[in-house]
TrEMBL record:
This is MarR family winged helix-turn-helix transcriptional regulator. It comes from Nocardia jiangxiensis. Residues 1-127 form the HTH marR-type domain. It comes from the Bacteria. InterPro entries: HTH_MarR-typ, MarR/SlyA-like, WH-like_DNA-bd_sf, WH_DNA-bd_sf. Pfam families: MarR_2 (PF12802).
Length: 143
């Protein structure tokens, strides 16, 4: 039941993201950087479940559009720290608000108790590591 629902929700997000000029991976990057700057594209890729070589064009595009910045890492001048810009934060917030409005329509179909139970269950399950579920790390997952 989860996989078809997840695919449907991602399909519903695509027009919203397109409206904000974002791809699914670009949105994942902006959400990932919400926790604070990332020490390198490899670290960020791992955090969001992306392939570090495939994320480079996404990062290049976001930087070119002024949504993220790459600056030298003070601890290692060969590395770059990735961070959201104010414009990137605004775009991310607008896209996230529109996506949450769509989610709200879906969640309104549930009673208050069912909704609370679903959200509590999702919070608990989202903290389980991929390795714990799968038993091994078999590469990146889609956002």
């Amino acid at each position: 039941m989860i996989a078809p629902l997840a695919r449907t929700l991602m399909a519903a997000e695509l027009p919203v993201l397109d409206k904000h000029g974002l791809t699914m991976w670009a949105y994942a990057v902006l959400l990932g950087l919400d926790r604070g700057p990332a020490r390198g594209q490899g670290v960020l890729a791992q955090e969001i479940g992306a392939d570090k070589t495939r994320i480079i064009p996404v990062l290049d595009d976001l930087q070119q559009r002024g949504l993220i910045e790459r600056r030298p890492d003070p601890a290692d001048r060969r590395a770059r720290v990735l961070a959201l810009t104010a414009h990137g934060r605004a775009v991310r917030d607008a896209a996230q608000a529109d996506i949450q409005a769509q989610e709200e329509k879906l969640l309104n179909r549930l009673s208050a108790a069912d909704r609370r139970g679903l959200l509590n269950s999702l919070i608990v399950l989202s903290t389980v590591s991929r390795e714990e579920i799968v038993g091994q790390d078999d590469g990146p997952t889609p956002p």
